[in-house]
Write a structure and sequence with these properties.
10 helices, 23% strand, binds S-adenosylmethionine, single chain
Length: 253
């Protein structure tokens, strides 16, 4: 499909189709890159998330299906009101490809959404994805450290899939991730908690009372994250489809 720029139906419909020289070269180049461990998404430049086709480059983490649980949690917290009528202010911290911010922009057409990242190269990809899905006017992008420079007390939701892997667990991380995905998107510091530890108090300053912090986590740090949120209200940690603690949510008292 990538080599011919076609869909799956075309492949099934034209089993007799032979590759011309240029196509063969493109196919072999993709295979060679893949055999060196380069993720397929960086070769094709695409990954699906929440039903949207997103552009990805080695400047951004490849969006993972587990991260869709963050979107589900936000929509559950928003409640039963008609999603199209809800006007909330949301900040997505460490937006990467923009996947979380754009999925929420799609689901909550009245929401005001801000997305931050410390990487200008990542923000370029996120902006391209916003434009690709006609969501440019809906998301404001900010190049900043976590939530620096954002208005205090202004948000109903702060959401994030922050870097949360510890350098001490590096050898348990797939080689493909270590070798090809951006290091500052994956690793937070020696323990894995370093970014979340800074994010929680900043989020507390920026949320309205009753506002929600919804963050992606791993099983390794779930207990520590629960401790860090001990003086918040309604803390809930939900598991992903593999039964691994994946999303922590809590309300500013
Ligand atoms: C795990 S990736 C998540 C990307 C995207 N939100 C997703 O779910 O696929 C973490 C992102 O946080 C960004 N990041 C790392 N440290 C940051 C910081 N101090 N402030 C803002 N963004 C940061 C990285 O550049 C990366 O894009």
């Amino acid at each position: 499909m990538f080599t011919l720029g076609c869909d799956r139906a075309y492949l099934y419909g034209h089993p007799e189709r032979e590759l011309i020289t240029d196509e063969q070269a493109r196919y072999e180049d993709a295979l060679a890159q893949r055999s060196r461990g380069n993720p397929a998404q960086y070769i094709t430049g695409h990954q699906e998330f929440w039903g949207m086709d997103l552009i990805v480059s080695p400047a951004v983490l490849i969006p993972r299906p587990e991260t869709e649980h963050v979107i589900e949690k936000v929509l559950a917290c928003v409640g039963r009101a008609l999603l199209s009528d809800i006007s909330v202010r949301i900040a997505d911290v460490g937006t990467g490809s923009g996947c979380i911010a754009l999925a929420l922009a799609k689901e909550l057409p009245q929401a005001e959404i801000h997305a931050t990242d410390i990487s200008s190269a990542a923000l370029e990809v996120a902006r391209a994805n916003a434009s690709r899905h006609q969501l440019e006017p809906r998301v404001q992008f900010h190049e900043t450290d976590l939530l620096a420079g954002m208005d205090p007390g202004a948000f109903d939701f702060i959401v994030s899939n922050p870097p949360y892997v510890g350098e001490s667990e590096e050898d348990q991380v797939q080689l493909e991730v270590r070798k090809f995905e951006p290091r500052n998107a994956v690793f937070a510091g020696p323990s894995g908690l370093e970014v979340i530890q800074r994010l929680i108090p900043q989020a507390r300053d920026l949320l309205k009372p009753g506002g929600w912090l919804v963050i992606e986590i791993s099983g390794t740090i779930a207990g520590r994250v629960r401790e860090l949120l001990a003086d918040w209200a309604g803390i809930e940690i939900t598991n992903d489809l593999q039964g691994i603690p994946r999303v922590a949510a809590a309300q500013k008292p």
